[in-house]
Amino acid sequence: MSPEGAQGAWAYLVPLIAIVVILLRGVRTRVLRIERMWITPALILLAVVLTFAVQPPPRLPVLVAETFVLGMGAGMGWWRGRTTEIKIDPETHALTSKASPLGMALIAGIFLLRFSFRDYALGHAGELRVTPVEIADVFLLFAAGLVCTQRLEMWIRARRLLGGTLGPPP
């Protein structure tokens, strides 16, 4: 196998491994520590800020696409957070969470679409009139919207379960 063929194989093997890991992690119940739920969104938002700080402002069509994709990611994150099962132990008040099969399927599908579209977009960037950096920015914003909104939704529900409501119930 040529070096290019080996690189091509890794481009498909890595997402497949990631999907398997996500599915395996999702089938088990995990302890939910609401006091730590801000860490991953904070790191992602830091990555977004640092990424955009070193780049020139995006062109208007790219800004529109980035805004749209950020909203899509936020919507899917909210939905995925709503489908995550959160339970509270009545004696210890310990919270646990477990991803729903539908939520895991969503993430697996997003991974597959992302890697399929990324290959297409990078191969046709000139025809699409975007740069590879702009393509990467779109994917980064989608992930940021999804993860941050999912964590926020789960945090709100977990707080309500513990009795610390953030406002009137829906």
Question: Care to give the gist of this entry?
Answer:
By secondary structure, this protein is mainly α. The chain has 6 helices and 3 strands. It is globular.
Word description of this protein:
The structure is a single chain. The protein has helices at residues 3-26, 39-53, 60-83, 101-123, 125-128, 132-162; strands at residues 30-31, 85-88, 95-98. The protein is mainly alpha-helical. The chain has one domain (3-162). Strand 2 (85-88) and strand 3 (95-98) form a beta hairpin. The longest helix has 31 residues, at 132-162. The protein is globular and about 60 Å long. The termini are far apart. 16% of the residues are buried. Mean pLDDT is 83; it is low at 165-170.
What is this structure's SSE topology?
Elements: H1 3-26, E1 30-31, H2 39-53, H3 60-83, E2 85-88, E3 95-98, H4 101-123, H5 125-128, H6 132-162
Antiparallel strand pairs: 1-3, 2-3
Structure keywords:
170 residues; mainly alpha; three-stranded antiparallel beta sheet
| Largest sheet descriptor | 3 strands, antiparallel
Report the β-strand fraction as a percent range.
5-15%
Rg to the nearest angstrom?
19 Å
Taking the alpha carbons of the first and last residues, their distance comes to 58 Å
Mean pLDDT: 83
The computed structural class is mainly alpha
Strand runs, count: 3
**Percent range of helical residues:** over 70%
SSE order, as H and E? HEHHEEHHH
Strand order of the largest sheet: 1-3-2
Number of helices: 6
Given as residue ranges, the uncertain stretches (5+ residues, pLDDT < 50) are 165-170
Global morphology: globular
Number of structural units classed as domains:
1
